[in-house]
Amino acid sequence: MKIRESQAALLDVKQVAALLNCSQRHIFRLADAGAMPKSRKLGTLVRWNRLELEAWIADGCPKSTVETGRGVQK
After folding, report:
1. Which one, of 43, 40, 44, lies nearest residue 66 by Cα?
2. Are 34 and 72 in contact (CB under 8 A)?
3. What CATH number is given for 5-58 in this structure?
4. Considering only CA atoms, which of 33, 37, 31 is closest in space to residue 61?
5. pLDDT tens digit string along 3-49?
6. Model-level pTM?
7. C-alpha distances in angstroms, 73 versus 2, 4, 13?
């Protein structure tokens, strides 16, 4: 059974930008500022958890408590 792109648990920057209706560059700015949920680094890939993003959006996009520097979890 294939998982459709819209149901994926981890989203790339392009998908996150589409979800938030902004540019990919803006997503990286938000991540650098610690203003969104942390991303995950999978090798050279950067991904965001869909459920965390949806919860963050539902809460009104509050500033996350993240250290500066992309907020990447390894």
Report:
1. 40
2. no
3. 1.10.10
4. 37
5. 565 567 999 999 999 999 999 999 999 999 999 999 999 999 999 99
6. 0.77
7. 27, 25, 15
Q: How far apart are CA 24 and CA 15, in angstroms?
A: 9
| Sequence ranges of the domains in the chain | 5-58
Tell me how crowded residue 51 is: count the other CB atoms within 10 A of its CB: 10
Question: Can you say whether the dihedral through the CA atoms of 23, 43, 70, 65 is positive or negative?
Answer: positive
Q: Which residue in 55, 17, 13, 18 sits closest to 37, CA to CA? A: 55
Q: 64 pLDDT exceeds 90?
A: no
Mean pLDDT of 67-74: 53
Q: What burial class does residue 71 get, using C-beta atoms within 10 Å of its C-beta: 0-12 exposed, 13-18 middle, 19+ buried?
A: buried
